[in-house]
Write a structure and sequence with these properties.
Strand 2, helix 2 and strand 3 form a beta-alpha-beta unit. The chain has 189 residues and is an alpha/beta fold. The protein is 37% helix and 21% strand. Helix 1 crosses helix 6. The protein contains 6 helices and 7 strands, in the order βαβαβαβαβαββα. A 7-stranded mixed sheet has the order 3-2-1-4-5-6-7, sandwiched between helices. It binds 5-O-phosphono-beta-D-ribofuranosylamine.
Length: 189
C-alpha cells in the first residue's frame, strides 16, 4: 500500500502512521508528504524519516486545478495508491478526486456529520457536548463530507479542560487512523 500523506500542520498523525509502518503493524509505505505550507512542522518530520516532500504555495499557481495537477503528477510519480489527509486544510478538488476515485481518506476531530470545518472541538464545546470523538471518512468534493469509515468517541471527565480533551482526541486519532489504514491495506473495509 503506497500512501501519500497530505498535511499542513504538526504532523502527529503522519508520525503515528509512519511509526505503525516502522513497527510493521501496517504494511505500507509513505512515498511522499504533500503540504500546502512550505514551513509546516510536518515537513521536517517527514525529512527526518527520509520521506520525500512536495511542499507548494497555492498562491504561486494560477488555479486550484493547476496546483492539484502538480500534486497529481508528483504523487503519481511516487506511485502513490492512496491519498491520506491528516490535517490538510484544503477541500480536495475534481482533479485529485478524478485521479484517485474512492482512494482518498481524511480524519476529522468530530463525530461527523456534526461540526465540520475549522475548530471542530470549539464547535462541540460551544454546543455543550458531553461526548467527543473523531471520524475517518472517504473524501468527496464537500467539506468533511463523504462516507464515514469509522468513528471513535469518549466522554471526558467532568473537570477536563479543552487541552485535556484535545490531547485525548489526538490520541484517539492516531489509533483510529492506523486501524483504518491497516483494514484498507488488507482490503477488508
Ligand atoms: C488533526 O486533529 C486532524 O483531525 C485535523 O487536523 C489535525 C492534524 O493534526 N484534520 P496533526 O498535524 O496530525 O498533528
Amino acid at each position: 500500500m503506497k500512501i501519500a500523506v497530505f498535511a499542513s500542520g504538526q504532523g502527529s498523525n503522519f508520525l503515528a502512521i509512519q511509526q505503525a509502518i516502522e513497527e510493521r503493524r501496517l504494511v505500507a509505505e509513505i512515498v511522499c508528504v504533500v503540504s500546502d505550507h512550505p514551513d509546516a512542522p510536518v515537513i521536517d518530520k517527514a525529512k527526518a524519516h527520509g520521506i520525500a516532500v512536495f511542499a507548494f504555495n497555492p498562491k504561486s499557481f494560477s488555479s486550484k486545478a493547476a496546483y492539484e495537477a502538480a500534486i497529481r503528477n508528483e504523487v503519481k510519480g511516487y506511485g502513490a495508491q492512496w491519498l491520506v489527509l491528516a490535517g490538510y486544510m484544503r477541500i480536495i478538488g475534481t482533479t485529485l478526486l478524478a485521479a484517485y476515485p474512492g482512494r482518498i481518506v481524511n480524519i476529522h476531530p468530530s463525530l461527523l456529520p456534526k461540526y465540520k470545518g475549522k475548530d471542530a472541538l470549539g464547535q462541540a464545546l460551544a454546543a455543550q457536548e458531553t461526548r467527543f470523538g473523531v471520524s475517518v471518512h472517504y473524501v468527496d468534493a464537500t467539506l468533511d463530507g463523504g462516507p464515514i469509515i469509522r468513528q471513535a468517541s469518549f466522554i471526558p471527565q467532568a473537570d477536563a479542560n479543552r487541552e485535556a480533551i484535545e490531547a485525548q482526541l489526538h490520541q484517539i486519532e492516531h489509533h483510529l487512523y492506523v486501524d483504518v489504514l491497516i483494514a484498507l491495506s488488507k482490503e477488508d473495509l
